[in-house]
C-alpha cells in the first residue's frame, strides 16, 4: 500500500475503522483457506465461484467456513416460497412476526414474552453482536471474553473503544468460563461479560451452576452479560445439556441484566436469509432497538421470518441433522486418533464447531491449512480466534451432509502435514503475515523462522 493511501487513511478514517484496519481479528488480517487459494495459485472461480465466502467449487469440501452445510429443511423452503408474494415484498416487514417472537422466546431462550422479557429481530446473530456492543459499550469500558473465541467478539468491542480482557480457555478450566476466573478479572472499568454458550470454537457448554454464579457476579458488580447461544441447536454429545441464561430467570435469580442472542444460520441452515433474534428486559432492549433503527433501520427478511417459523417447528429436520453431525464428529475422531501429532483438546458437546491441536506435528496450523486446500479441503487456523495457540489450533466445521467430505479430510490431513514438515509452505505463510504486520502475525513468523533452516523438524513416529 502506498504512503499516500496510508496517510489518507490516517487522516480520514474514524478511530473505529482504524482499529479494525489493523486488528489481528479484522477481516483479511487473519489466515484462512482464502489465503491458501492465492498461495496455491488456484482459480477463485474453481474454488469459491460466485463471490461467496465458503468453498463450493466442484470436488472441494468446506470444513472451514461456519455455515451449516446441511442447509434448510423442506418445510422452511416451502414457507419461504409461499411468503414470497407481491404483497410481502412490496412493504417494509414487521420487526418480528408476533407468532415468531412467541416461539423464539420459548424455544430458543426458555422464557415467555411479558413485561420483563422481549424479543426483537436482528440481521442474524451477528447483527445482535453489533447492536449489543453499540448499545452498552463506551470508550474505556472493559469486556471479559474468552481466548480463543469467535472472530468478531474482540474487534467489534474494541471498535467501540472498549478494552477486551481475555480469559484463556484450556484444560484447566474445562474450556469454559469459570466464575472465579471471571471475578478475578473484574475492575472498576468492567462493563460486560461475554458468555458464548456453546463456546465457539470448542463446542463446550457451561453448567447450570456456572451460569447462575456468573449471573450473580455480574449482578453484584452492576455488569451486563452478553449470552450468545447461536450454536445450541444440535447436541453432538447426547448426554450434554445447554441452558440459555434467560431460562434461569426467577425472583431469586433475576436475569434482567442478560442480553441474549441467537439466529437461524447455524441451527437451521439458513444464513442467507439473515434472520436472528436479540432478547432481554424491555428496558435494556429499547436502547438496542433505537440503536438499530438509527444505524440500519432494517427489519429482518419478511419471507425469511415465515421460513424461520416453519424451520423451528420441523422436529424431523432437527433429529436427522443431529444424527448427521454426530456421525461426522465420530469420523473426525477416528481420523485424529490415526494421525500422529494431532489431538482433540476437548470433545464438543453442541453445534458443529471443534478444534484440533496440531502442535505435535511440529508445523503450524497455517501451513497445514494450505496443504489441506491443495487436497481440496478447506479449514481455518486459530490466529483469527485469539492469541492462545494461534499457530497450533485448526478449527473444523463438521456439518457437511456428505460423508465423502470426511473421507477426503482423512486422506488430506496426513498429506498436508507431510508437505508442511517438508517446508513447502513456510515462505508464503510468512509472507502473508509480514504483509499484514500484526503482533500476532509476527509471533507466527518467529515460529516459521525457527524452522527455516531445518524444515523437516519432526519424525512423525515420535
Task: Offer a quick outline of the entry.
This protein is α/β, with parallel strands linked by helices and 462 residues long. It has two domains: 31-62 and 317-452, Aspartate Aminotransferase, domain 1 (Alpha-Beta Complex); 74-312, Type I PLP-dependent aspartate aminotransferase-like (Major domain) (Aspartate Aminotransferase, domain 2, 3-Layer(aba) Sandwich), CATH 3.40.640. Helix content is 43%, strand content 12%.
CATH topology of the largest domain: Aspartate Aminotransferase, domain 2
Shape: globular
According to CATH, what is the class of the largest domain? Answer: Alpha Beta
Low-confidence stretches: 457-462
Q: Which strands sit side by side, in order, in the main sheet?
A: 2-8-7-6-5-3-4
Strand content: 5-15%
CATH architecture of the largest domain: 3-Layer(aba) Sandwich
CATH superfamily of the largest domain: Type I PLP-dependent aspartate aminotransferase-like (Major domain)
Helicity range of the residues? 40-55%
**Sheet/helix structural class:** alpha/beta
Helix tally equals: 19
Q: Could you describe the largest sheet, including whether it forms a barrel?
A: 7 strands, mixed
| Terminus-to-terminus distance | 44 Å
- Rg from C-alpha positions? 22 Å
Number of domains: 2
Q: What is the overall pLDDT average?
A: 94
Count of distinct strands: 12
